[in-house]
Amino acid sequence: NIFLNLRLSLPLFYSSPAGFTEGVGVLPDDRLNAAVGGTMIFTTTMSPTEKPFSSVNWSFNVSTPIIIFIINAENIIGPEYEGRITFFPSTASLELRSLTLDDTGEYGVNAVHDGTLLNGRTTLVIYEKVSSVLVNSSSTDLVEFNGSVSLSCSASGSSLSFLWLNGSSEVTASDRVQLTDGGSNLTIINVTRFDQGPFRCRVSNPVSTVTSDPVNLSISYGPENINLISSPPQGYFAVGSDISLTCSVGSRPPAQFKWFLNGDQLPDTGSELRLMNVNMSNSGNYSCQASNNKTLRSQTSEPSAITVLEEISGSSVKPSTNLPVEGTSVSLTCEAFGSVFKRNWMKDGSELTLTDNMTLSDNNRVLTFNTVNRKDNGEYFCQISNPISSDGDKYIMTINYGPENVQIKGPNEINIKGTLKLTCSAESTPTARFTWFFNGTVKLTNSVEYIKEEVELSDSGNYTCQAWNNITERTSSSVVHGLTVTGTCIEYDSLVVHTLLCAPVSPPSPF
């Protein structure tokens, strides 16, 4: 065998014969990786120089020659490598093509340059590329907290390693997550909604990486976090309003809904309940119930109170009597149409402060004065309200009283033929009516004043004023005013004037 004989006759492998100097390693120390069918270039660390290599010898696993190069001679190539290699004389590098698994092993080179023997070794590992990555799931339809799933990853290739991804995050082992069979099997116990994926299996070896198509799990959960919302949000509504109730809940698949009023099921379904043109019969506690036909679970909301009210109108304040008399009992009654929630009383523009003679009853509907007095005069205002409206009415109360403190003003002495004017006054509401007496005889009625022109001596005497109130039907005690008429008497007799001295006449004692 020419190749073998030549190899044995040349000191070109891993020993340093006499007369040569061994150089440093010229191949990388790290292991080289390549794929079946691929190409590997063993690049040396030597740079081209003006003086070429004297000889270069490449071998596989020490005993199998690849190529022998001798300057000015024909290259000798091992039969397994015919048509698969390219040799680069300037750097002593080697290209190996059409790689197979049998090409895995140690590669060595010896090169003589300018009297120096240079050698190196490296290891090449050939891998089958990863392919046909497929994920199978034991189930894709699961219930949260009530099921487990196993995902298995299969692939073709050599020296495979497995990595699982949930979305973009790496899946790692935990109390719920198990990785077995070198990581090719993924088991999740008591799945949650966050285990829905997408799951991918990434398979790799030193020469390739392939990721599977995504697998999604359908994790049914809920219903949970149920919430009932009213629109508008207030709990009180006027008759004729439109109300919308919306039931929201977390659920997969979407929940089914039932509606209840005061515990009784309504015919409505769906997540929204619309109440149009409501009346007072629509008042009550509304609740919704959500159910999931996959998880077989249900949840009921807290009740939402809806109160439909009539607006307040036609307010009035009516007294028990239109003519209240001091010392008697009087009640003011506050009424209105509609749904009355609250009544507030005011007096003369300020909040009413109850005094000892006042009481409020029947939810502030009736204001009672046990015995009214003139201090209770004023404007009383009753405001009636509910959460959606208010109205009010006023009543001006005037206390009738008297007469009392009757007084007569006028002269106690007057000249004869003078004009007499007496005025009578009394404290009274309404204004009192007066009757005048002279010496016990009624002289004048319904007049504040008693007037007489050209009084005579006979007008001397006691004048009495008596006051009367037609509402209270009370009469005052009489007040006596004494009058004395004085002066000169003149007597006319035909053409003769007789002047007489008239003596004053004193009024009789009223006692």
UniProtKB/TrEMBL annotation:
Q: Does Glycoprotein appear among the keywords?
A: yes
Q: Which Pfam families match?
A: Ig_3 (PF13927)
Q: Which organism is it from?
A: Astatotilapia calliptera
Q: What is this protein called?
A: Ig-like domain-containing protein
Write down the superkingdom of origin: Eukaryota
Annotated Ig-like domain ranges read 128-218, 223-301, 303-400, 403-481
Keywords tagged on the record? Disulfide bond, Glycoprotein, Immunoglobulin domain, Signal
Entries under Gene3D superfamilies matching the protein: Immunoglobulins
Check the record and name the PANTHER family matching this protein: CARCINOEMBRYONIC ANTIGEN-RELATED CELL ADHESION MOLECULE 5-RELATED, CARCINOEMBRYONIC ANTIGEN-RELATED CELL ADHESION MOLECULE 8
